[in-house]
Each structure stands twice: as structure tokens, then as C-alpha cells.
Amino acid sequence: MNILNLFIIIPMLTVGGILLTKDLKQSRLVSAIGMGFQLILSFVLVYLYLKERHAGNTAAMLFTYDVLWFPSLNIHYALGVDGISVAMIALTGIVVFAGIFASWKMELLPREFFISLIILASGVFGFFISLDLFTMFLFYELAVIPMYLLIGIWGSGPKEYSAMKLTLMLMAGSAMLLVGLLGIYFFSSPDPHALTFNLLEISKIHIPIGMQRFLFPFTFIGFGILGALFPFHTWSPDGHASAPTAVSMLHAGVLMKLGGYGAFRVAIFLMPEAAHEQAWIFLILTAISVVYGAFSAIVQTDLKYINAYSSVSHCGLVLFAVLMMNQTAMNGAIVQMISHGLMTALFFALIGMIYGRTHTRLINEMGGLMKVIPFLGVVYVIAGLASLGLPGFSGFVAEMIIFVGSFQHTDVFHRVITIIAASSIVITAVYILRVVGTLLLGPIKNDHFLHLEDAKWYERISTITLVIAITAIGTAPYWLTDMINFSLVPIVQKLSSIQLTSLN
Amino acid sequence: MDYTYTLFIPLIPFFVFLVLGLMGHKMPPIVAGLIGTLGLGLSTVLSYFTAINYFWTSHVPETAYASIKGFEVPWLHLTEKLTIHLGVLIDPISVMMLVVITTVSLMVHIYSIGYMKGDPGFYRFFSFLSLFSFSMLGLVLATNIFQMYIFWELVGVSSFLLIGFYYEKPSAVAASKKAFIVTRFADLGFLIGILMLSFNTGTFDFQTLTDPHGPAIAQAGGVAFMGMSVLTWSLIFIFVGGAGKSAMFPFHIWLPDAMEGPTPVSALIHAATMVVAGVYLVARLFPVFALGAPDALHVVAWIGGFSSIFAAMIACTQTDIKRVLAYSTMSQIGYMMLALGVSGYGGEEGLGFMASNFHLFTHAMFKALLFLGAGAVIHAVHSNEIGDMGNLRKYLPITHMTFLIACLTIAGIPPFSGFFSKDEILAAAFRDNKMLFAIEYIVAGLTAFYMFRLYYGIFWGKKTHYHHTPHEAPKVMTIPLLILAFGSVFAGFLPFHNLVTSDGKGFESHIDWMIAIPSVLIGVVGIAIATVMYKSETAIPDKMAQSFKHLYKWAHRKFYMDEVYLFVTRKIIFRYISTPIAWFDRHIVDGTMNGIAGIIQYTAYSIKGLQSGKLQQYAFVFVSGTVILVLIFVYLV
Amino acid sequence: MIQNIPLSYFLVISTAMFFIGIYGFLTRRNLITMLMSVELILNSVNINFVAFNKYLFPQHLQGHFFMLIVIAVAASEAAVAIAIIINIYRNFKSIDVENVDEMKF
Amino acid sequence: MNLSDFLTMRHEIVLSVLALLILIIDLNLHNRDKHRIIPISISLFFVYTLVGFLPADKSVLFGGMYQTNPLLVMMKNILNVGVLIVLLQSVTWLKQDANREKISEYFILLFSTLIGMDFMISSGDFLMFFLGLELATIPLAALAAFTHHQTKSAEAGIKLLLNSALSSGILLFGISLIYGSTGSIYFDTITQLYRNTPLQVLAYIFFFTGMAFKLSLVPFHLWTADVYEGAPINITSYLSVISKGAAAFILIILMFTVFKTIAPIYNHILYLIAILTMTVGNLFALRQKNMKRFLAFSSIAQAGFILLGILGGNTMGMTSVIYFVLVYIFSNLGAFGVVSAIAAVTNKENMDDYDGLYATNPKLSLLMMLSLFSLAGIPPVAGFFGKFFLFASAASAGYYWLVFIAVLNATISLYYYLLVVKAMFINKSETPLAYFRSDNYTRIGLVLSGVGIFILGFWSQIYEIINSLSYGILP
Questions:
Q1: What is the pTM of this model?
Q2: Is A185 on the interface with D (CB under 8 A)?
Q3: Is B91 helix (H, G, I), strand (E, B) or coil?
Q4: C22 touches chain B (CB under 8 A)
Q5: Is B632's CB within 8 Å of D268's CB?
Q6: How far apart are CA B319 and CA A230, in angstroms?
Q7: How many domains does chain A have?
Q8: Domain of C67?
Q9: Do B and C share at least 3 CB pairs under 8 Å?
Q10: Rg of the Cα atoms in chain B
Q11: ipTM summary value
Q12: Is C73 in contact with D134 (CB distance < 8 Å)?
């Protein structure tokens, strides 16, 4: 049995298990066990992957599994992973695991909640292990749709509006994406009877440049909407603000990464010439995302809005780096995806926990919480410092790789825009410190807060898992970047060979 | 000689930090304090061992001091050429810095056991101190510029944590935020500088960068932008980072506010070690500056010179004793920067370089002493304001003596160490740029004046009435004062010109009396004026303030720099950038999305009349549809 | 005799009937009259079929058969329609088409 | 003509026999035992459905008037399965007192229309086609007016009948012109003789509008909503699913065979009408509160998607259309099944009545949600696959912008489908519909559609079978 299939089967079994449960206690236990398995499995996968690589296996994708599904259309259920997807899977495993613990006290319709959450997770897992664009797209949509219920039922504030907006905007994104994918499919082979959705096979083909020019924006924006590309990001603040804790964690933590991953795996990898031609437009947009998101975050007063805008900024950096199209920057993009996934999940988890205690998310109404809930306070500071790119945490590693990589371009445009994007680190510091200063430090503003309880054991599990992951990447990034680098080589080779031929 | 063990100099504090951070809250405070102090004591011992070893024991006389990589591991592979390493670089300046940092840090640790006694955050304080020590040691030992940047940021955050140590005090929180953000802004410059430098030279490594025949300096030529080469620009950007950390104009505004932190912290971070990181950075890259981009070095010199006189003027008017010391620090660091800026490379030419480091060394001693002394005073009278003090020499004899020594040292009175180092700086400035020399000469006088204004204000004056009688600090606090006083007195006799030079080779240096005597004189004049004005309470200060009303007011308000910054941040960034962007996002971008939905809804409602329920209308539409199709076909065929 | 009448005459007639039928369907208010208009349309079709068959393709009888079937279908259609119209009359007390607009928008 | 020829016509013959049999049984039953017809008819129809799956060969009867081949048989089978589910779902409604005496009428009329559709699908000339079309339409009008004490029902009947009479008049006029210009009513002959002369183009338009009426394409759709709303709910689901599916089948067959020479011209029209249909259908569906009317407009929008497959013009196009209809039958019947189950018990069919349904009737709500997701084209349910293949076939012909517009429309449709989901799952209600158990027929019907929604997508075999039988315009 191929290990990758387990990533689909375990969530299914978990969902089945939850269906048999009766109440919150049982369903959360089943979910925790199921997702705990999934987490372990993710790390087993990392281990097996590294072992295989050490054994000298240099295939682009490992653990491939291929079943012909729709023979007439040559649609396969094709799985396979490389270093990049392995890393993303590990991220997903961690965030989902933490998310389950963050929703330990989900009183309202717990079974339905956990089922939706796990369906969402399985969509994400499926997306990352897919090699076939069709299955990839299927999983992509599968991941998006439970979102509506998760926000609509278990959310807060204007949840119905936010849920609808989020779902519709993401679906509009997948509309564009679908056009792009179909276009790629019909030009995936000169022989009309040998069309394929398989990523690796398409990557060997040269899609006609005229078609690329047409399809690239569709594909890129399609993925970009999920990756919060300016100006299509507005679903994100509302959606995140309304979503329940675990959903925000999963959504910002892993679902938004589908955008960056897809933009890079599909849009740029398969249509490199168009990517080279049009990169400047999207670079400008992403640079705007980066700076604009950060500036917007400065004046927000709702914790979730702050974090949502910060996600816009950070995810903008992912797309930004992807568009730089050199090995280092792309590596940085992936590290940034992982790093941001962990950080933002941690943030949302903490916000949920704080909100559960203070019943407000407005920073102006809070203050001095460090004194009463020191554990959460300290972890919040850690998350903040990670987010503003402090060495020792993953954010620094990611940002530095991105900036150094982006700066390796010889032309002025790329370098100037890199500097503009880099300036976001200052703005990030401003809003992070503003939050930390107002929320945690200073005198206690409200007497009700004097009797708050510090984190419970399940909350500690949730946060500590994430903190460990963040610091692990931050202090020892070498193994991660190496793993990613190895898999980037063929991709970058393709990109650079295109560059050379187009010059000739 | 194998220097791998130097790895432990930063690592020991790091482990102490982890231990205290994770388990400190379960320990009795004194245990936490002892663990911290002992850990740092170990580092200190190792540092001294290294210094003796490096400078004397294993050094072959008459040869240049080598730059040795004691240890290095790759940490992050970036591009084919660029890899970030973590390691330990042993060379004269880093060894000197080791000594400075561990000495001052150890003193501060010991002192804090007394000073922080009874504070609920005792263990936290020591863990932060350890974190800082780790970061700072990592910074000075960095083998490459990126490692330096990494620790640079860590230093920044530990400074942030320590300034905001009293986190329930809004002013402390604000100050820590300000310090972090201002230095962060400067760090952006540093980062851009690193990006440019590494892109053009293909290396982060200090040894390669500073090699006079290496790629960085060899490729220095060529004009890139505004008449300066890429190398110059990248160095200027890097210097921006240094200026931020070292509180050079215009990034200095965080330093006075940073005095909100506990006084030992001010002594350690904001006087002796972290704030000189900028100086250290320029010194570290000095060959590149001097040989590759003299223009950048001019910038360094002028910024340093301006900052020193600017800060000195403000220091004359401040009434908070820690703020006076803070401005004094800024002024002295200006000195060091200036010294670097006027220096050349190699041998006698490198006098400024040597002087700068010399002054860094002595300044660390006497400024830490001043701060710790001030801490003892504050500990005794529970106030920072000069107006609340007076006549304390009776109550605090040891503090008084050591403080006086420190004041004399900073005023440049022989034979105290400040005299020697300052004299070298003036000599270097005189050689290179008379204008800067003149400025520094005036600053020397101002320094003596404001230090003694402070001294008299605290220890003399008339006021004798206190709520409860001030008492001398406990031994654990006074012993560090005495040790540092010892250092302040005798550090001047160290043969720095043989130890820390721009190219590692020693050179002959002697006191140039033509410069030394006037500088001592102006110091004495400054002291004298202060004595007349402040020894006993007279009306002269007020009259002076009246007669130079505007100048006094401007200086007292720190030349309105805080207001300028407030204007920039509150008004421009918050009100004119962020708020409009947030508004734009909500109403224009999001409004467009909602607008599309709204238009669709509106259309849906406005076309509902089409479905009128009338059978014949349906038939009419049916027939018209057919006709239209026919027309289209007619057009097509 | 019949040879003296050209095909186009029949076609003109049938086309005219077709449009008269449509016009009647669109304008008459009475449901029965509308039904009659439909019969006009169907009859125009019948004329067409027969005329085409006779003039153009006399070797087969397809058009004629078609005409017969159409007549039969029209009859059954009318039967069902009148049944429903009676039903309408019962419910609405009127067979004016204007009144039959309970469901709209 | 021998026995085996009858076997090739088994769908039509068996069904006719069935209808007659029911009539006879009904005559022999006492009034209070009328309800026994229900199990008898349904089990007979079930057997018939199974019989339909027996392998069939290609053959031609009546000198070309009737033709059959595996593809056509499969289309009929698809319709049969749909009808079976409709029958199962209508049991609760039939058992109501008002309908007690008319049970056999219901089955007979329904079977007649199905016979008509089968003939229409199997037709080899326009005469048979016309006969089948009318046989499929006229009893439907009677069915729409089934509840004769309700004004709405009568109104639906007359609207359906008069509109269809008009449209078949126009269609017939078109056929007469085709006959006049080619001299034949046989598809095979016409295919060879079609030359795109202006008269033939005109004839084609007249013919197309008639079909567009059946398929309720904009602007020939206006009757749809009113009839759907007024007709009894199970008739509505029959109309929206079976009738429309049959129309789609025959349309694509004729487009790909008889009218294939005209394809380069009519593709422009189809392009336009596809956009119009999807958009207008969606815009009207957006603000509907009545579930039947809501589903009516949504099914108009769905018809627009079918045109995408026709536009594709190749094997994939036909496959995707047939596959989509199959999926659409299950999805729509899922939705209609829930609506009818609720309406039959509580007599409520407004969206507001569904508020808080999940709390009381979770299974119905889930099925409804899945059906709606399937209609919207959301994985993992079958609708996703159906839509995807349709889009793929349109894209294969290069209509990328059309695909884009179509997917955007699918997004808009998701909006209103989600409104229902929102009502059921999110909205709170003071007085939610009480919990009820549907009878076993309905439950089987619902389960069948639910299972279909899930299986059809993942079970690629179905798609492959359809694909192996389909053909495109190009030789």
C-alpha cells in the first residue's frame, strides 16, 4: 500500500469514526487520535522521503502511485511527493493537529464541526499529494467548500456575510483556475489523443506561447485569489474575523498556502515563458499586497483583522518570491509558506483562546493580560516576534531567503521592488508591537480580567506544538531548505532553460 | 591555537537563558540570580583566557594579529555563492569586545542581585540578561555579516524585552516599542546594505570582505547612483543600521526613552555594549570602508561628529540623571564614530581606528560605572530627577567616590583612562579634518561641563531633606562599582596601539601634547564653570537659561526631535497612510467586490418584470426571440 | 388546371396563415380563440406539406402522411386544451387569458 | 417484421403494455383499493427498468422511421432510472385523499409521456420525431393540471399546453420547410442534402426554437417557472429532469447528425444563448423564495450548461452532455425529492420554512445540501464531474471565454444554492418543521438519488461506457 493513500484514507476513517460518536468528548477524542495519526504519518513521510533521497533516488517525485481513472480523458488518480510537498504535508499535519486541540471545547454541533474540519484537511492533504491536475483541482475545491459551513455555523460576527463572501470569491478564483487548467490540458500534448493532466508529463511539453499568454493570468490569478493577491484579498479579513478558531488556523495556516503552492507548481512551472513575460505585473501586485497589507494592519483594532491583514502581507510575500523565479527566492517562498502557516495558526489559536476568556477581540478594550495569563501572553509574544522576523524563528529564515534570493536579479526593477517588499519588515514590527503593547502589556484595563485562567492543557498542546515547529525551523533551517532545494532543481532548470532559449 | 572552545562563551549564557526562561519561575529568586551570574562568570573567565591567550600567550611578537575562525558551521544555504554560516571569529576587536561585554555584563549581573532584589520578575530579569549576553557575544563573534545581522536582531529584541521589563508601566512599554521600531527601521537599511554588498561581492564572510585584495575592495570602482559606487551605497546602508543601534542622529530618539528600563540594563545595554554595536560594525568592516569607499567613511565621520555635539548640547539641559547619561552616551559614541570616520587604513594612518576602539573600551568602563552609580543613587532616593537630590555625598560615600572618578574620566582629565582615549581621537581628527576637530574640541568642554553639573547636582547642593534617610547600597552593588572604577582609572594604560589596530599590526603612538594640553584645559574649564554654577545653589543657571532662552529651550526639548518623530508616525503613517489604506481597502477594494454582488442583485430585481405571468407576453418573447435569431442568421450567412 | 396555380401561391397562403395564426395567438384574449390560432398555424404547415409534396416531390407521399398525422395530433391537442380550459373556467370563472397570471416574477 | 424487431422496440412496447395493464387493473379494482396500484405500478416499472438494461443492438425499423442503437438504449435507460425515482418520490403525494381516485391516471399519463420520449429519441425521421414530441408534451399538460381544484395547477396546464402548441407549430413550420427544401423527412437523407441554403437555415431556426422551448433556453423559457410552480411537485421534477433530459438527448443527436453541416453558423447562436440562459436563469433564481420556482430557474441555468457540451461538437461533447444529464437527474431529483417529501407532509415549500431544518431533519438536510452542491458543481459529489466534463468539451473547441463565463455563473448559482444551505444549517427558527418520517418509497427514492450523487462521479466506468457509445460531429 502506498503511504500517500493513507493521507486520504485516515481522514476518511476519522470522519467515519466521528459519525459513530455521540457527543463532544467522543468526537474530539476520535478527531485527535485520527489527526494525531496523520501528524505522525506526516513525519514518517518526511523520514521516508529523506531516507529515499539518501539512498540516491533522484526521481522528481517519490512514492508515486498512479491509477487510471477516466481513461478516455486520460485522467489519473496520480499521487507523488517531492521535497516541497512533503514539507507542506508536514505543515498541514501540524496545523490540523493543533487545530483539533484548539477547538477542544466546541460545544455546538461538535460532530459536524470535526467532520467539516477533517474534510477540509483531507482536501488540503489531497491537494499536496496530487500529481494530476484534475485530482488537484478536485481536492482544491473540496477544501474550499466546508469553509462555508464552518464559518457560517460556528463563526461569529457577520458570519453569514463573511462565509458567503469567502466562498464566492474563492469559487470565482477556481473559475479562473478551471479555465487555466483546461487550457493547459488541451495543449498538454501535440497529439490530441495523448492529452494529459499529469504535471510531470506536461512539464516536459512546451505549451505554445500564445496560449501561455492567455492561460497564465487565469491560472495565476485563480490560485492568487486563494493566496490573497491584491486586490482579490478582501475575503480574507472578513472570513478570518468571522471564522471559529480552528478554522482560521487551518484556513490561514494551510488553505491559503494552496494558492502559493499552486501558483508555483502549476502556473509558473508549466507556463514559464508567459510567467517570465507577465511576472512584472504580478510582482507589482504582490509587492502592493505585502506593503499594503502591513499598512492596513496597523490601524485595525480587531485582533483577527490585524492578523488577517498580516496574512495578506505575508502571503503576498510568498507569491512575490515565487514570481522571482530563481531557486533561492522560490525556496524562500516555500519556507515562508510553512513559516507563515505555523505562525498564523499560532496567532489565530491564541486569539481564539484570548477571545474565549475576555469575550472581546478589540485590542483597545484589553490591556495588561500578560500579568493574568502569562503563558498565553508569552506565546503571543513569541508568535509576534516570529511574525516580525526575529532570528531563531521561522519567519526570519523565510524572509531572508526571499530577500536574498529576490535580490539576485541583475536588473533594477526586481531589486528595487525587493527593497520595497523588504520595507514591510518595519511595518510588521509596528503593528505587532502595537498589539503586544496594547493587549498584553501596560496596566490591566478591566477588572473582570483579573480572574482569567491561564491556558488549559489542551491549549498548551495546541500552542506548544506550533511553537516547537516554529523554533525548529528557525534554528535549524538547513535540513528543510535542503530538502526543498533538491526538488526545486528540476523546476528551476526548466525555468532557466526557457530563459536561455528565449534569449536566443 | 584552537579556539573552538570560544563557542561556549556565547552558548553558556544561552543555556542559562533557556534554563531560567523555562524553569525560572519555579526557583527561588536568589538561585536564579546565582545561576545567571555564575553562567556569565564562566563566560567571563573564558573571555579573559581567550584575550590573554590571543594577545599575549600565543602571539608571536612583531607579527600582525591574525584573524582566526575558531569555529564555523553552515546554517543556511542561500545561493551557490552565498551561505550563511554560524561561527566564531577571533581577531583583535572581537576579543576586545569579548572582554568588554563579559566584564560589564558580569558586573551588572552581580549588581542586579542587589538592585533587583524583591522584584517579582527577578528570574525573568536574569534570563533576559542572559539572552542579551548571548546575543551580544554572538554578534561580536560573528564570522560573517549575516550572522552579525542575526544577532543584531536578537540584541534588538533583548533590548526591547529589557526596556519593557516593567511591562505594567505604560511609559516603559512605549519606550520599548519605540526602541525596537526605530532600530528596526535602521536595520532595514542594514539589510538592504547586506543585500547589495553580498550581491556585488558574492560573499557574506568578513575575512573575504575585509581582505584588502579581496573582491569587495577590488570591485569598489564604478559609479552607480548619485555619483557614488555600489559599494559606497551598500556601506552607507549598512551604516544606517549601525547608526540605528548606536543612536546616531537622527535615529537617537529611542535611547533617552530606553532609560525606562531598569538601571543595570541601561548600564549594560544602553551604555557599554549594545549601543556600541554600530561602532563595532563599522570597525568590523573598516578595511572595506577605508579602502573601498572613503565617501561612506566621510558620512560616518560627519554623522558621528554632529551627533556628539548635538547630544552634548541636549545633555547640558536635561534634569533626569539617566537621560543626561544617555545623551552623554550618544555624544561619546559620536566620538567613536568620528574617530573611525577620520581614520585611514594601516599603521599610523589607522590611528583613528585604534582610538575609536580604545575609547569604546574605556567608555564601557566609565559609562557602566556612571550608570551603576546612578542606579545606586536612584536606589537610595527613589527618583530620577536631579531636583530631588543633593548633598548625597554624605550618605553614599562609595558611590560618590566612584562617580567622581567616572566624571573625571569622561571629562578627560589625566591620568584617568578617558584622557588617553579621547586624546587619540582628537589627534586623529586633527590630522584629518580640522572642522571636525573643532567640534570635538567643543564637545570635550561641554562633556566636562554637563558631567560635573550632574555630579554637583547629585552629591552637592543644599538639599538635605529626604523622606527617609538615603543609605549606601549593599556590598553586592558597591563592589561592582569599585571594580569598574578600577577599570576606569587604569584602562588607559593598556597598549592599545599594539593590540587593536586597523591592519592587526602594532604601531608607535605617543601622546601629542599639542593636542592633549588644550583638551585637558577645556575639560578643566568646563568643570570650573560647572563648579561655579552648580556646586552650591546659585541663580546663575537660571540666568544663563534666560539669556540663551531659545537655545536653552530648544536643547531642553531635545531640539524637538521627538515631536518630529511623533508627527511622522502619528500623523503621517497612521493618519495619512495607514488609515486611508484601510479605508481604501474596506470601501474601494472590498466595496468593488460587494458592488459586483450588489449589481447582480439589483439586476436580478430589475428584470423580474420579464416574467410577467402573462401567457401572451411569453409567446411574444418567444416569437421575438425567433425573429432575432433569424436576424442574427441573416447577418451571419 | 391545378398546374396553372404556381407553388408560390400556396406558399404565400400558408405563410400568411402562419403569421395570422401567430398574430392571433399574441393578440386574442380568449383562450379558445388562441387555440384556434394555433390550429391556423398547424394548417399552414399542412398546406406547406401538401403543396411541397404535390409540386416538388410527387414520387413519394411523405408530405401527405405528415399532414394527416398533424391533423390527428392537432385534434388531440385541442381535446386536452379544451379540457384544461374548462378547468380554467371552473377555477377562474373566465377564459380570458389576461386573468390567468396568478404566478409571476 | 418479426419477433426480434419487436424486441428492439422493447422500451416502447413494454411501456405501452404497462400503461394498458395499469388501466385494466384499475378498472377491476374497487374504489377503496385504488392505492394498490402504486406498488404494482412501481414494481412493474422497476422490472421494466431492469429489462431495459438488456443488451441491445443497432437496428432500423419501419423503413428508417425507427432506429435504435446502444447509445439510444442507454439514453432511454437513463430516463427510466430517473422516472423510477420520480415515481418513488411521488407515492406520498399520490396517497393523499385528493389524488386517490386518479392514481392510475397519473401512471398512465406519465408512462405515455415516457413512451413519447422514447419514440422521440429513437426516431429516424421527422414524422416519428414529431409524434414522439407531441406524445411527450400533451399528457404532460394534463399532468400539470392534475390537481384540478387548484387554480395554479390549471394555470400551469394551460400555459404549458398553449406555449407548447405554439412552439410545435413553429417547429412544424420549420420541418415543412426542411421537407420542401430537401424532399425528405428521413434524417439520413436530410443529412446528406443539407446545404445551408437560406431556406434551410430558416427552417433550422424554426426547428431549434421548438427544441429550445422544450429545453427552456432563454428567451424561450418563460413558461418554465410558472408551470413548475403550478404543477404538482412530482410533475415538476419530472418536467425539469426527464422531459428536459430527453430534449437534451434528442437535441444533441439531431445537432450532431442532421444539422451538422450548419454547425459553424449555429455555434455562434448557441454561444449567445448559452450565456443568456445561464445568466438569466441565475439572475431569476437569485431572489426566489418558493423552492419549486427556485429550482425551476436553477434548472434553466443548468440547461445553459448543456449547450456547452453541444458547442464542443466532438465525442467528448456528447459524452459530457449525456453524463451531465445523468448526474443532473440524480442531483435535481435529490433536491426535488426533499422538497416533495417536505411538501407532501407539511405542505410547505418556501425557503423560509426550511430555517433550522437541520436540527429537526438532519438526513433530509444533508441530502438536500449534497444535491445542491452537486447542482452547483462542488466536489466530491457528481455534479462536479458533470460540469467539469462539460467545460472541458467546450474548452476543447476553444471556447475558453465561454467556459469562464459559465464557471462564473456556476459561482453565482452557488450563491443561491448556499442560501438554501444557509437556511437549513445556519438560520435559527422559532418554529422549525417538526421531525417526520417519510414513507419507505420516498426513502428509497431519496437514498437512490443520494447514492447516485456520490457514486456517479467516482465511478468512472459510467463515463467510459457513455464515451464508448458517443460520437462527435466530425467523422
A1: 0.89
A2: yes
A3: coil
A4: yes
A5: yes
A6: 51
A7: 1
A8: 7-92
A9: yes
A10: 30
A11: 0.88
A12: yes
